[in-house]
Amino acid sequence: RGPGASGGPARGDLRVAVIGAGMAGILSAIKLREAGLDFVIYEKADRLGGTWRENTYPGIACDVPSHFYSYSFALNPEWTHRFAPGPEIRSYFEDVARRFGVASMIRYGTEMVRCAFEGGRWRLKTSDGSRDEADVVIAATGVLHHPAYPDIEGIDAFAGAAFHSARWDHDVPLAGQRLGVIGTGSSAIQIVTALVDRVGELSLFQRTPQWITPTPNAPFTEEEKAVFRAHPEAMQQIRQEVADRYIAGFSNHLSDMNSPELLLIHEICKTHLESSVKDPVLREKLRPDYRAGCKRLIMSAGFYDAIQRPNAKLVTNPIERIEPMGVRTRDGALHELDVLVLATGFRVDRFMRPMEVRGRGGTDLDTAWRAGPTAYMAISIPDFPNLFMLNGPNGPVGNFSLIDVVEREFAYIMQLVDQLRSGDCREISVSRGAMDRFDAERREAARHTIWASGCKSWYLDGDDLPTAWPWTYDRFRDEMRQPRLDDFDMR
To answer: Which pTM does this prediction carry?
Structure first.
């Protein structure tokens, strides 16, 4: 390439390190290869797949329709259901990585422990003690992979099998067993629905009830799949229709808690509860006292039926402690169990951590994020040049297709990388002023979102303020089309 517009030498030798081989890391590798850049992917586990590798519990499935939760350039005619089960999604990512020739670029079993920007480059250190250097680091580390364990007395005292839902022990027999599940998020709802007919007794320990939308998961017929194989445009049409429906009917309205569309969704969830649960006492135990959408909406056509089975029990008395024989609640009752599952979610504030990350002048990421993780457009952090995040803090989360989110974020990042390749600069990161302005605008907008309407959720920070993208999804798409280079510190 010729000289950059600023007169600096063009750089065709940029080296990129991608951290993580989940959905976002695989996308990064494919696009970096298309761009002709030298890159490597570091993956701490022994196989790719990210959250779909970590979570293998019974009943796991995506809550975004399959054709929308697919790379736009690698649509899949073989999805078996409208909402794909977890093993199929993991296999899909494995197949895409093979077909696009990036699987061989992954260094498995190599956890990144330190990234330090020194002398104009990122100096990297991995768990096996090896070292590397890169001009650009792309953190595709994901969010849902550090399990959150509840602070309950005696959690290690249980005499039976006990494990987190993201660390499922498939060697533990379940048939006829007394199963306890702590938590009522998406994982717990899927587990209960999948296992209630396999176990002898099932106790679901609920702290907070959830709003549930009635979402059937119909299979694709062989005839439909044959059409998809012969006419890929049919899949593209479905993908676009689903995207339009999700964005116009839901995502664009999360920024306004008083939106009529959100009020309608609340009524749909309310009607689903009232028409599905016969016992009035159980129905009221399952009724949330907050607005639908304040927490991540749960999609299930079978949970209310499952929790009404004769062998199922909803426990709403707070947990006092865990004992060798089971769970003791504050009313004094001991709920005897053989197997205990902690479906208690993830530490969603970790992002790149516990990896040590040091930016310009030794700036420490933990110090920069002392008040909580923040990133400009969910991508860049002041004083951490040439470091870009995918699905970083303050981005769209919840009932979105994160594949669609990441494709747009990566296209944005590549425009920043092009500033480096052209020789216009050697270092690029958001300026402190732009970061402060973005964060102030984000915090003000967050107060009006549905997530701020009166519930506790993992979307909230220490000040009970939502951390997610607080504007419409249309605005996110507009912002991702082209960086505002005036907001960046380019050196």
So the answer is: 0.94
